[in-house]
């Protein structure tokens, strides 16, 4: 009626970019699934004023700009000042007969903002509660010194900086004091909130004055999303022992039964190891509690394995060295009743390599929960054409039960369906091509293969290997311009952490190669290279439905799961990938012959490490690799600065932990198979249909059902709550789920 276009309005809205990559996006999918499954679940986090930076590409380099996402307000959130809570920092510990007291602390207030999380068509709305930091009104003014009133008010910013900005590192630990403050801030506010809710419920029965916490783990489950909220373990112990006056052993039993820990990475540089000195300054009581947890833990190990001092050192929560550090993963394992990885292969690595000592001690504690994605956002919302086409064939129920996609196997030889699937893909490609031409002023050939590699820029994800393949294709076209070449548009996108020099060089290299390739008249429309600026969720929703080939090419054993891989599979792209993360299970579901799997397996990588990886050998043996590397080295792609990429080349030869050259040959050969199949549109589309039909396992609904049954001990319900305008039966008032996760 207002003459407004809904799509135009959607374009204006800012992404809430409150996470870095897979881990944050996974949490969002999980919230959608928990609401859709009728679980009484809350997502807790920080309401960052500035989310992940906006990426601009200037002269081929990444430049960061602040993400002022709240500039025009956020209509979905509601501030809840009535639930504001104090969080304490610094101070000291006083011990007395009545127990320990943490005193002389600095107080910061945590103001909650609630965002509704609606389930899919079930009249359930859950809550995401994000905390914002506020200075108390007497901040810096309660000191007896008359002082500078103006300065005191200006200094309120110091307290409120806690929720100012998201640290932009993905898979990398940066041990900064402000980051530790953020981690404790979200934990302290959330635990107070949970305990307040428990005490208000009929379960938090009070004996005279004291709350009885025996039923706490039956009513509350807390899932730690990586080690970032690990301080919740000593914090809950502090509340139980110091404030609620529970005996240690009882408090510890309740704590362990409440927490479960999800590990998201095996990269050593990503594991959180906080300096003891920093924790002692910021959270002195928590350090004491961690020491006590560690002492009891090590006493137990020493009892089981007498005289095994090496084992004690390996399993300690405290790492000795130049600076003593707390190993937060060890704290999470010891303080939780369940530990899980996020794909079968990752959970195996967690059990047999990274935490093998802990798994030997309590094998029943370690589980797998393969990641998933919400089909509401990643099919219905982003690809309505494909969603509608599927619904015509198998009905609409698959949206809540994605395993029903297997019914599509019946139509794999249906010529009409094959044509319709190809048509939807073509329409999505044309639409995205228009977007690219508008944004990047490049002419895109919509019938070319859209070869897409979008994810955070990291050496382990091997965007460099893709780059070497682009250069190889370029050289082949120039060597023999008349030879048949399957046209490609290669799209690479993703953000590099601002302090990650090599990742920023990789972006510059891709843009330098694109500059040469896209302006070579011999190449024409056969090969185009585009670096997609400012990759984010809203852009993923555009590019994924338009993709033909999904690049999932991490070194085997490094990508814990990946979730982009699943989004592409569900949206009718074929995958070229290593046997890593969830790719392994995708190949298991669809049949390995329906993915383009190449390269070393985990065993081969281990073997190569044993004998020593020598990059020079591959360079000497493979002429096309040598040519590509020599071009980068000589300045072919950077004629004004021939030495620009010296660091990249030097890394590839002398300290490439991720063995790009070792998989190059297999990768290029596999890409030739991809091109060959793409020539046969019908055979390609049949493989696409087989992939979509096998994607059902990768719904986050399935993942959450597994967490609910195996870890939280709650039953998902598909009951549709009656809408508010219908009278409820008295019997329907009871929640079928006892536990709040």
Could you characterize the architecture of this molecule?
This protein is an alpha/beta fold and 741 residues long. It has two domains: 15-368, Rossmann fold (3-Layer(aba) Sandwich), CATH 3.40.50.2000; 442-679, Rossmann fold (3-Layer(aba) Sandwich), CATH 3.40.50.2000. Helix content is 44%, strand content 15%. The chain has 29 helices and 24 strands. It has a six-stranded parallel sheet with strand order 21-20-19-22-23-24, sandwiched between helices. Strands 1, 4, 5, 8 and 9 form a five-stranded mixed sheet that branches. The chain has a four-stranded parallel sheet with strand order 12-13-17-18. α7 (232-243) runs antiparallel to α8 (248-258) and α18 (463-479) crosses α25. The longest helix has 26 residues, at 415-440. The two termini are 42 Å apart. The relative contact order is 0.11.
């Amino acid at each position: 009626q207002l003459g407004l276009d809904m799509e135009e309005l959607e374009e204006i809205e800012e992404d809430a970019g409150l996470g870095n990559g897979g881990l944050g996006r996974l949490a969002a999918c999980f919230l959608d699934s928990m609401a859709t499954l009728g679980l009484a679940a809350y997502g807790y986090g920080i309401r960052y004023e500035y989310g992940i930076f906006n990426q601009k590409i200037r002269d081929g380099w990444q430049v960061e700009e602040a993400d002022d996402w709240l500039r025009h307000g956020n209509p979905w959130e509601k501030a809840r000042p009535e639930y504001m809570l104090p969080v304490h920092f610094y101070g000291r510990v006083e011990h007395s007969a009545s127990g320990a007291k943490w005193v002389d602390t600095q107080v910061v207030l945590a103001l909650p903002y609630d965002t509704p999380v609606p389930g899919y068509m079930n009249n359930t709305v859950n809550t995401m509660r994000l905390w914002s930091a506020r200075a108390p009104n007497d901040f810096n003014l309660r000191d007896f010194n008359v002082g500078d009133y103006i300065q005191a008010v200006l200094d309120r910013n110091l307290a409120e900086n806690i929720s100012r900005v998201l640290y932009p590192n993905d898979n990398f630990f940066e041990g900064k004091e402000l980051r530790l403050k953020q981690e404790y801030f979200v934990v302290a506010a959330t635990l107070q909130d949970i305990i307040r809710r428990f005490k208000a419920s009929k379960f938090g029965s009070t004996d005279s004055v004291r709350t009885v916490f025996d039923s706490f783990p039956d009513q509350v489950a807390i899932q730690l999303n990586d080690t970032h909220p690990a301080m919740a373990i000593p914090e809950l112990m502090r509340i139980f022992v110091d404030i609620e006056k529970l005996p240690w052993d009882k408090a510890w039993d309740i704590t362990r039964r409440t927490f479960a820990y999800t590990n998201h990475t095996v990269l050593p540089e990503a594991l959180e190891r906080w300096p003891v000195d920093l924790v002692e300054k910021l959270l002195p009581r928590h350090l004491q509690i961690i020491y006590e947890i560690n002492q009891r833990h090590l006493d137990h190990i020493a009892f089981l394995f007498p005289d095994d001092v090496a084992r004690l050192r390996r399993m300690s929560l405290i790492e000795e060295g130049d600076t003593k550090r707390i190993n937060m993963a060890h704290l999470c394992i010891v303080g939780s009743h369940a530990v899980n990885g996020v794909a079968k292969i990752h959970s195996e690595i967690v059990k047999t390599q990274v935490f093998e000592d802990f798994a030997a001690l309590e094998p029943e504690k370690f589980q797998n929960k393969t990641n998933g994605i919400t089909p509401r956002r990643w099919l219905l919302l982003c690809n309505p054409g494909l969603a509608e086409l599927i619904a015509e064939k198998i009905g609409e129920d698959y949206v809540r039960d994605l395993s029903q996609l297997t019914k599509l196997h019946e139509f794999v030889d249906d010529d009409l369906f094959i044509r319709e699937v190809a048509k939807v893909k073509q329409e999505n490609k044309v639409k995205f091509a228009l977007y690219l031409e508008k944004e990047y002023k490049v002419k895109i050939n919509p019938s070319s293969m859209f070869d897409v590699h979008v994810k955070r820029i990291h050496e382990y994800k091997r965007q460099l290997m893709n780059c070497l393949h682009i250069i190889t294709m370029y050289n082949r076209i120039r060597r023999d311009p008349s030879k048949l070449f399957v046209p490609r548009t290669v799209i690479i996108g993703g953000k590099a952490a601002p302090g990650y020099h090599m990742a920023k060089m990789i972006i510059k290299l891709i843009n330098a190669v694109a500059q040469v390739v896209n302006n070579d008249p011999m190449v024409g429309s056969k090969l185009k290279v585009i670096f997609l600026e400012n990759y984010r969720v809203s852009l993923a929703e555009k590019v994924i439905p338009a993709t033909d080939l999904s690049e999932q090419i991490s070194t085997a054993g490094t990508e814990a799961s990946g979730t982009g891989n699943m989004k592409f599979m569900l949206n009718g792209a074929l995958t070229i990938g290593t046997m890593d993360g969830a790719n392994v299970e995708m190949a298991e579901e669809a049949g390995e012959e329906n993915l383009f799997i190449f390269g070393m397996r985990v065993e081969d990588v281990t073997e190569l490490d044993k004998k020593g990886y020598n990059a020079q050998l591959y360079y000497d043996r493979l002429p096309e690799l040598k040519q590509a590397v020599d071009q980068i080295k000589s300045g072919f792609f950077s004629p004004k600065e021939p030495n620009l990429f010296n660091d990249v080349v030097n890394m590839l030869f002398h300290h490439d932990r991720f063995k790009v050259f070792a998989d190059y040959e297999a990768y290029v050969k596999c890409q030739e198979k991809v091109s060959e199949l793409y020539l046969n549109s019908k055979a390609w589309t049949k493989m696409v249909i087989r992939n979509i039909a096998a994607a059902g396992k990768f719904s986050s609904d399935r993942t959450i059902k597994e967490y609910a049954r195996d870890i939280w001990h709650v039953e998902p319900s598909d009951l549709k709550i009656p809408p508010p305008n219908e009278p409820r039966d008295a019997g329907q008032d009871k929640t079928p789920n006892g536990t709040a996760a």
